[in-house]
């Protein structure tokens, strides 16, 4: 009788345990995304994640790529051209002249782009990032994924991020910027392969890989990397060489014809007539609003001599020259922008009784600028082919 009682009790415990497990699993049923927003394609059940497929067509320059901990680089200010300063000629290209009826017209350079009301897919950027895809069948909350990630990400030096595939809108989103109630299917960790400080080191890439494995383990999910570790190091080196080859500052200058030089009063008056904006570093800029309504600097004008400032408080001050400069890689439609810069400099030179010269103080001729236009177009084409268009968010992050 005692044996029967014991067996009965054991049986009841087993039944209760099985019932508990079944109930627990029923509360965590994996969801299925609607077919119209599925991120996976393929036939015969073989699913391929588009995240790791070659990108089709150029990358949109308006695509969001912001991160809460993004590292930014201040726009360059050309050094003063005095006897103690030498500018590397390899880094400077005379600016081109392109015939354009709207060149030099500030209003023509202004854009009235409006933000789309639709949600933006702001996922990993394969062109410049090493990606760890942590896949799963069950949903995961924002705080759960972000909490695990933050236990490890502080060891990274290069720009890194965490993204989730939002089950409500079918878009990759930056978890740092998402609502805490959001839920996701897949998670991505990323690290930038190169930036203006150089390529990612082997040590840091190893730390990132280990972090991704640990995050995947804590979330109890498999992880897939966008490329092999050694291939990622090679890609980082290639990307850094590409950056160095194309990171060019284009320069033209105005030198005074007379020994008196150019007066600050005349410079400020004529610069403002041409629509240049006085701002950061006490110099002038041509500005334009981008799609996010942020102000982009297209080109700048500074004093040719140290410290480069064009002070407004000292109206009696003179200078022997002005320098116009801009970065090829970080402006959209660089040929058009350069045309505006040249025409603005030409006009200002006439009004101030100056001469427009290149970096070697040779008068800027039309034939010279036309030949340089071909080089600029070639550089822009290379950036398009690389999937990093000039002026795009990717270009700004890389350069």
Explain how this protein is built.
A hairpin with a 4-residue loop joins β4 and β5. The chain is built from 9 helices and 17 strands. Among the domains are: 180 residues, 2-Layer Sandwich (Cell Division Protein Zipa, Chain: A); 97 residues, Cell Division Protein Zipa, Chain: A. Strands 1, 10, 12, 13, 14, 16 and 17 form a 7-stranded mixed beta sheet that branches. Strands 2, 3, 4, 5, 6 and 9 form a 6-stranded antiparallel beta sheet that branches. With 399 residues, the chain is an alpha+beta fold.
What does this entry show, briefly?
With 399 residues, the chain is α+β, with helices and mostly antiparallel strands. The protein is built from nine helices and 17 strands. Among the domains are: 89-116 and 247-398, 2-Layer Sandwich (Cell Division Protein Zipa, Chain: A), CATH 3.30.1400.10; 129-225, ZipA, C-terminal FtsZ-binding domain (Cell Division Protein Zipa, Chain: A, 2-Layer Sandwich), CATH 3.30.1400.
């Amino acid at each position: 009788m005692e044996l029967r009682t014991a067996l009965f009790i054991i049986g009841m415990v087993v039944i209760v345990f099985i019932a508990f497990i079944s109930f627990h699993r029923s509360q965590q049923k994996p969801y299925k995304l609607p077919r119209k927003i599925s991120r996976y394609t393929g036939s015969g059940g073989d699913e391929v994640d588009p995240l790791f497929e070659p990108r089709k067509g150029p990358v949109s320059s308006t695509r969001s790529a912001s991160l809460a901990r993004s590292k930014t680089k201040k726009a360059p200010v050309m050094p003063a051209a005095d006897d103690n300063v030498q500018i590397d000629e390899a880094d400077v290209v005379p600016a081109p002249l392109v015939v354009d009826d709207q060149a030099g017209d500030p209003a023509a350079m202004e854009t009235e782009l409006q933000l789309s009301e639709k949600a933006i897919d702001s996922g990993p950027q394969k062109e410049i990032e090493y990606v760890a895809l942590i896949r799963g069948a069950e949903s995961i909350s924002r705080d759960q994924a972000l909490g695990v990630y933050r236990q490890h990400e502080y060891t990274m030096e290069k720009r890194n991020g965490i993204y989730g595939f939002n089950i409500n809108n079918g878009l990759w989103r930056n978890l740092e910027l998402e609502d805490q109630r959001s839920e996701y299917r897949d998670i991505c960790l990323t690290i930038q392969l190169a930036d203006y400080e150089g390529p990612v080191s082997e040590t840091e890439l190893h730390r990132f890989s280990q972090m991704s494995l640990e995050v995947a383990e804590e979330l109890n999910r498999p992880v897939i990397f966008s490329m092999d570790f050694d291939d990622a190091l090679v890609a980082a080196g290639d990307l850094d060489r590409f950056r160095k080859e194309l990171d060019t500052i284009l320069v033209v200058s105005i030198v005074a014809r007379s020994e008196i030089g150019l007066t600050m009063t005349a410079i400020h008056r004529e610069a403002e007539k041409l629509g240049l904006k006085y701002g950061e570093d006490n110099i002038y800029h041509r500005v334009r609003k981008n799609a996010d309504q942020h102000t982009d600097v297209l080109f700048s004008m500074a004093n040719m001599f140290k410290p480069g400032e064009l002070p407004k408080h000292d109206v009696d001050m003179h200078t022997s020259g002005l320098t116009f400069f801009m970065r090829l890689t970080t402006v959209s439609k660089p040929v058009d922008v350069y045309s505006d810069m040249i025409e603005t400099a030409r006009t200002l030179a006439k009004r101030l009784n100056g001469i427009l010269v290149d970096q070697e103080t040779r008068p800027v001729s039309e034939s010279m600028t036309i030949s340089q236009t071909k080089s600029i177009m070639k550089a822009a084409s290379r950036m398009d082919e690389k999937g990093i268009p000039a002026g795009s968010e990717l270009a700004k992050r890389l350069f």
